[in-house]
Amino acid sequence: MNEEIKVFEEKMSKTCDALSADFMTIRAGRANPHILDKLTVDYYGSPTPLQQVANISVPEARMILIQPWDASLVKDIEKAVLTSDLGLTPTNDGKTIRLVFPELTEDRRKEMVKDIKKKGENSKVAIRNIRRDANDTVKKNSKANDMSEDEVKDLESDIQKLTDKFIAEIDSIVDNKTKEIMTV
């Protein structure tokens, strides 16, 4: 039965990992190349991740430099950045694209923190849904395997401890990102 709980623990862990990965794409005033992870460029008719068609570097604290391997992609990359929700205006010199990060205003920081907390809440809901599924599985298996009430209670207690652990982890991830945004 503990093997089944491991499956639910993995699902909860993946939820936390997904939240962390999502938060990497949120800019906090400093240039972070991960904000470009979701961008794709039309490369010979197929959407291709930006990292596969260009070299991305951070030459200064508030600038990202994109150097496409194929100079004909400069306009497509520029268009992809403009149509994204990054809020950045690219500049190019024909061969490279520069993304300069402006200082974040206080209002924009507060707006970002609200968004971060909302994403954190959504992750907590996902964790609670996994807990519900785990408890349902335990109840179904208890009837099929003639488990005692104590065994069922122990398993439900273990599931709750896992849930509490991952909810605390999500709170920690949200707090760290909030501090990062508010102290830049």
Please characterize this protein's 3D structure.
The chain is built from four helices and six strands; from the N terminus they run H-E-E-E-E-H-E-E-H-H. It has 184 residues and is an alpha+beta fold. The mean pLDDT is 85.
Features:
184 residues; alpha+beta; 4 helices; 15% strand; elongated
Q: What is the structure about, briefly put?
A:
With 184 residues, the protein is of the alpha+beta class. It has helices at 2-24, 74-83, 106-145, 149-182, and strands spanning 40-43, 46-49, 54-60, 63-68, 90-92, 97-100. A hairpin with a 4-residue loop joins strand 5 and strand 6.
Distance between the termini: 47 Å
Low-confidence stretches: none
Q: Please report the total strand number as a whole number.
A: 6
What average pLDDT do the residues reach?
Answer: 85
Task: Give me the side-by-side strand order of the main sheet.
Answer: 3-4-6-5
Series of H and E elements: HEEEEHEEHH
Major sheet characteristics: 4 strands, antiparallel
Q: What portion of residues belong to β-strands? A: 15-25%
Shape: elongated
